[in-house]
């Protein structure tokens, strides 16, 4: 899947039909080119960094004053878009070429939007109406949700859903205009360079003033979206590793010091008949108690701070049992080693020498 941004200036689309005809010709010519099996248009590519919004009224929904006209993410698409991008249809139908006329007005909503505004009901056949418009649009399909905004969110937090409309004279944005900038999506066996040459050649043959840019594969788009969270993860992991190392060194030093200070006590116990195993068990048991108390405090503190880290995580919970268990096991191991090594060393000393140790 290869994508590219086509950006005519807004005056080019002052005549809406001219803009629609231009993009229809682009799709027809590209789709008939060798190596291209499918082509579609969308105004905001998923994870592409662009946001399109539209306030609308929802049939049968009575909300607060702030939600009487909820703000939706608006995707303007050509009919083949859903099939090309592999977005599953959950109910109803997708758009057809007949919908590109805009009469009658139709729309498709996402599963999350349908569940939010028509809970327990069938979304098909319901109606929505864009702000500053009189005509109601009929919901003809429900699509699966898409991670359009980032890896964790379908839409920004201030938006309440997603609606798709066909690229037609009625595909208006919040300011009432039809989008001029569109992203073309191709399913092709050609490489990026060949696709770039094809698109530049096709668009320039229709209008020499319209640029084509940002030619990249959909895989690249996803990788770019992952790059920032990935670098943040590496940074946090580095800090965590340093903190864990310092913590282990600190635990070992403190426990080792405390055990070594008991060298005289150990010698006295051995002089009175205590076996080496008894001494070792005593020290290890006290170390285990020390470790358990620290782990309980640490886990409680981590759980209290987990919500702060939740926004930085992807694919793992902020209360991931494996992570908590792994760190707890490592800290316990270090604590036991900190008890065992100096205790073992102290037990090798002759009791009489230990008793004289100051």
Plain-language structure description:
This protein has 358 residues and is α+β, with helices and mostly antiparallel strands. 46% of the residues lie in helices and 18% in strands. The chain has nine helices and eleven strands. The strands form two sheets. It has a six-stranded mixed β-barrel with strand order 3-4-9-6-8-7. It has a four-stranded antiparallel sheet with strand order 2-10-1-11. Helix 5 (218-260) packs parallel to helix 8 (321-347) and helix 7 (276-310) runs antiparallel to helix 8. The protein is elongated, with a radius of gyration of 32 Å. The model has no long low-confidence stretch (mean pLDDT 85).
Q: Give the number of DSSP strands.
A: 11
With strands numbered from the N-terminus, the spatial order across the biggest sheet is 3-4-9-6-8-7
Uncertain spans:
none
Q: What is the general shape?
A: elongated
Q: Report the span from N to C terminus.
A: 76 Å
**Mean pLDDT value:** 85
Write the H/E string, N to C. EHEEEHEEHEEEEHEHHHHH
Class based on secondary structure composition and strand pairing: alpha+beta
C-alpha Rg (nearest Å): 32 Å
- Helix content bin: 40-55%
Strand content: 15-25%
Number of helices: 9
Largest sheet: 6 strands, mixed, barrel
